[in-house]
Amino acid sequence: MATSNSMIAPSKVALPPNSDEDVNILSMIYKICKKVAVVGAVYLVGYMQWSVAWLIGPVILSVIRDQWRRENEYKRNLAKAAALSSEKDVVLARLSDLPSWVFFPDVERAEWLNRILLQVWPNVNHYARSLLKDTIEPAVAESLANYKLNGFKFERMILGTIAPRVGGVKVYDRNLARNEIIMDIDLFYAGDCDISFVLQRIRGGIKDLQIHGMVRVVMKPLITKMPLVGGLQVFFLNNPSIDFNLVGAADVLDIPGFSDILRRCIVEQVARMMVLPNKLPIKLSDEIPTVDLRMPEPEGVLRIHVIKAENLMKKDVSMIGKGKSDPYAIITVGAQQWKTKHIDNDVNPKWDFWCEAIISSRKCQMLQCELWDWDPGMGIENDDFLGRCSLDISQVVREGRLDTWQTLQEAKHGKVHLRLSWHRLSSNLLDLSHAITETQLVKTGEISSAVLNVYIDSCRNLPNARVHSRPDPYLVVSVGKKSENSAVQMRTDNPVYEIGYSFLVQNPEINVLDIKVLDQKTGNQLGQLVYSIASLLRERDLSMLTQPLNLQKSGAESKIILSLQLKILKEAVKEVDAEDGEDLAAAPACELISTSTPSNPDATDASARPELATDAATRLTNDVELKNINDKDHNTTETASQKSIPVEQIIKTEVSQDQQAPPSDSDTPKLVHRTSSLTTSAGEAGLGRILLSLRYSMQNQTLFIVVHKIANIPLKDPTNVPDPYVKLYLLPGRSKDSKRKTIVVKDSCMPEYDEQFEWVIPLAELHSRQVEVTVATHKGFLGGSPNIGQIIIHLNQYDFREAKTLWFDLMPESTPRD
């Protein structure tokens, strides 16, 4: 054996050199073939006398595609590393996916929950396969068919070994009913899934699937027997962010256009399942009626009026080199979406578009408005992006009505004009006449006066569509122009649906509820119910609970079992009371906490005056006029001396002139915050002062800065009044993408802007970033330096659990180190 081993050993030692030689030869052959292909392509272009664009075009597209894929791959790798690491490793590595409990003390760690998810993940794989095949696949195929992409079908569905990760859990204990528990979960999935599909006879796959969003779990009702909770309601508060990588033959289509369409279709299907107002109910006890979990429970209605936009970007190119845009707007609230008509050749379009959103969680839901330039295409969207803006619905709730200009983000310039109003729900019949009158005042769009909640339990004794064959029934539920389709129940004449819908009703005295029962196999109608909504006006609390009603155009014994509830829209009012003060203290983790400067300088603590704090907070979180507040401050401080406050506080109490500001870190520039004062009107450096609002949204991980106004810019030459504007950069790493700029105000030393800007910044990076704010003038070349003054805002000096509005003294321009 020793001899044989000694004989084998030399041969093993001799293998690596031969292997290296083979690799080198293959590598050389590959390089020769590659050079021949490149030279041959160039020769072919010249021989055929083709345009040079045939050569340059593919090269440019290839470079752009590679760059786009490298950026996405880098983000996916970071996310996957965060998903695989422990909490300690994530924090030490300072990755962008730091859990929320690091910064928010009311959010608890959830390592125990992550270990449970890892243990049960193999079992979840089996459930996910059936969910993808039975629910997601037909819905995605239907959505892709709208883009002329047919034949979508899943072939292999493996979710891999990496389980979802919970970044933090918050359980609410205030302002809740006694029979429920509400819990928010910061859920993040960056797995090693392997999903293959067929589309247009092209085989492809999805890998590196990532989903991130805030999931709410409502446990209700609480019962006295095990498991102590009757059921769960699971849903995303807003649309989650979804990303993935296409592989296989579909890798050729992994370009921004096609991948965006596929991503949009997937987001739509997730939204239909479990993004508000849609919920995923899970029944845990047979003692609890299913209607308690599945009956819709809206909190109110948000009425949206998209009026117009101004100064949009020009995306179209005309024959003379100048073009405009054909803009339209897309409004999104959770799973609800509306689209305006497009206006041809106009960068200042007027839509006058009305829509209404049913709101199920007014404290957490967001309104998003995207503007696009319409371009005719061949089925695949090629519209150009013009910018977007987002707004907390809680701001509208506190104000009742809100008229605002929102500056478009991710755009060079442009803003959109929105009017919003909040309508609560009432069971008082006396409110109906006023609600109907209000709907008649709107001439350009249909608005509602009530909300109809429908819960359909089941159908009984449906007729057979064919002899000796049971039907495959599904429901089409309609009120007015809106229709909803239920899932198909296979081969049964007693289908159980247990589904709930909410419909907006223009006039309950006229509108009807129409329910059709159809057979999927034959398309024949198995029964129909036409119910007059006016009948509910005679019911107690405007409700009808779990009643069997006869189906028309069906058998004598055919029935449908349902529950109905009508709620009347109550006019918008400003909700400022003691309860709102409690709401601020118990606001969800996703809410933009907005506590601000009281308008009365004598108030020493905004938290002690909840009505002032709430009112001021709403004004801060929107682009609204602060003129009255500033005038009041100006009048009360005419005889005041110089004041200064700590950096981390909102302006509160006047201090004497000889009292100095607290010492600051020597490595950071000094920022001086002042209230309005005539004696120091031009600031410490005599360059003027600027009023800014700062806030941070944990839900969207977005920093918002509102540039309100500039005060007392020095006028050195009365014949040369400046044209001031404000430009902002996110530091370190000043880049074109992080630049924001206000409009230019002509000939003014006291310009007012009220423009809001935003940057997406992960929680892990927030306290290491700065914002450079520079005031400049367009008359710089004639009147001196183009920059008037500058401030550097170090974000680590602020507690962003509170929104702040502060005056900053403009200082001489400096060049910070990135």
Automatic annotation (TrEMBL):
The keyword Transferase does not apply. Residues 283-406, 432-551, 686-808 form the C2 domain. Residues 106-285 form the SMP-LTD domain. Residues 654-666 have a biased composition (Polar residues). It is a peripheral membrane protein; Multi-pass membrane protein. It is found in: Cell membrane; Endoplasmic reticulum membrane. Keywords: Calcium, Cell membrane, Endoplasmic reticulum, Lipid transport, Lipid-binding, Membrane, Metal-binding, Repeat, Transmembrane, Transmembrane helix, Transport. The chain crosses the membrane at residues 36-57. Residues 622-636 have a biased composition (Basic and acidic residues). Residues 619-647, 654-673 are annotated as: Disordered. It comes from the Eukaryota. The keyword Transmembrane helix applies. Belongs to the extended synaptotagmin family. This is Extended synaptotagmin-2. The lineage of its organism: Eukaryota, Metazoa, Ecdysozoa, Arthropoda, Hexapoda.
